[in-house]
Specification:
The structure is a homodimer.
Chain A lengths: L4 E7 L1 H4 L7 H12 L2 E8 L3 H11 L5 E5 L10 H8 L4 E3 L1 H14 L5 H5 L2 E3 L3 E3 L8 E4 L2 E4 L3 H11 L10 E7 L3 H14 L4 E9 L2 E10 L2 H15 L1
Parallel strand pairs in A: 1-2, 1-3, 3-8
Antiparallel strand pairs in A: 4-5, 6-7, 7-8, 9-11, 10-11
Helix pairs in contact in A: 2-7, 3-4, 8-9
């Protein structure tokens, strides 16, 4: 049984310039792992139409799902919706369902539903809206591309709207062992153990604490019995 | 005058599984911006030879520099050096200069220089070593690809070793204005201002604080006089 795969596309000059530290990647990675969808690649590109289109055309056919973050607000640098439409060759315009949502929201707030705000109703034809309980302006799913906001609390709310609708695989389990030895000391037997379990992924993550070398050894897989068995072997080697 | 460009390739299952939160991207982004090298794209891929090779073959010809992080330790999942050699069609083996560095290090520490540790001396032919003052095992530069460790303090030390050797462009300046209004309110005039300054990059980053919408408006460019001039205009609009 294999797991569905995913890629993420982060759209944002502010990440690439170092102004903002991205946190959406880490959140999505954890959520996908939990439901058994395997995040295989992440790309971060600038707010440039052609770069977004090129990335989507590479990622969309290669993975079960593509998740994007950023660039769906009301300002001139919010170009994601149009780029997604172009990449997937869909038409785009202000859609009545999104217009109605936003109109009602700004009416309630007593704010003008001006031209800039109406930009957020630009949704490709054939797309399904993604619910945004935080600030109403919706994301959308077009084909296998899920388009979400970049602001972390809105991104997280949209992820919570989308993921329950997707079919996951068996959960990706992980167990780890913390060893007070450097990687160079355990690498030989650890590598030999990994070779005996080609169906599992074994990784080692070194750290320095109070000047002493240590390593976290992690075993990942979808079959609980296999992960347990390998973990027993690992603990016998280094525990 | 244009700025040199850069891409980053983060290699690591642990980032994609959500086990570890990457911090190297943010550090590199800030350091490159400081010296006037424009980070244009980041990719995160798993510890899979073919995926690393494919990413390097896409990125290396497209940017002035490529920086990688992760996968250069002594364990079986450390495959970056071999993948870089394959991508750039260089030979690779244990190199005498790296062997000598590591042998001296382990001799001083009274630790065996075993087979796993000798893996860290696998450096492609023609590569220049990158100094690692933290734990000795070097990174390397091959062509325009700078290969560095994933452990954040070692990554940062290697970045500090490499960047002074590179030719930057004019520093990428940035000024920002914090406005207590939502994006939808300022988007129209802000977009019109951005259109008047095609040589500058203007971005808006919304936030919610105590339930109220606000926006950080950021102007970026390399010409200080132009950035100042646009900032005066921006402040007059929304200050």
């Amino acid at each position: 049984m294999t797991n569905p795969t995913a890629a993420m596309l982060v759209i944002g000059d502010e990440i690439l310039s170092g102004r903002t530290r991205d946190s959406n990647m880490h959140h999505l990675a954890q959520e996908l792992t939990r439901i058994g969808i395997s995040l295989r690649e992440v790309r971060v590109v600038a707010d440039v139409h052609d770069e977004i289109v090129a990335a989507l055309r590479a990622l969309s056919p290669a993975f079960t799902h593509v998740f994007t973050s950023g660039g769906i607000g009301p300002t001139h640098d919010d170009i994601t919706a149009d780029a997604v439409a172009a990449a997937l060759r869909a038409k785009i315009g202000q859609r009545a369902d999104a217009m109605a949502l936003l109109q009602a929201h700004y009416d309630r707030a007593g704010l003008p539903f001006n031209e800039a705000r109406q930009r957020m109703a630009r949704i490709p034809e054939g797309a399904t809206l993604i619910d945004n309980p935080v600030s109403i302006a919706p994301g959308f799913t077009l084909g296998n591309v899920h388009v979400m906001a970049g602001v972390p609390n809105i991104f997280q709310a949209m992820v919570a709207s989308v993921l329950p609708k997707l079919t996951g695989g068996p959960p990706l389990l992980s167990q780890s062992l913390r060893v007070a030895r450097g990687e160079g000391e355990i690498a030989g037997p650890f590598g030999a153990l990994a070779a005996e379990y080609p169906d599992l992924s074994m990784g080692s993550y070194p750290f320095l604490q109070n000047g002493a070398h240590g390593t976290n050894l992690v075993i990942r897989g979808t079959d609980p019995a296999r992960v347990d068995e390998a973990m027993v072997r690992l603990t016998r080697l280094f525990g």
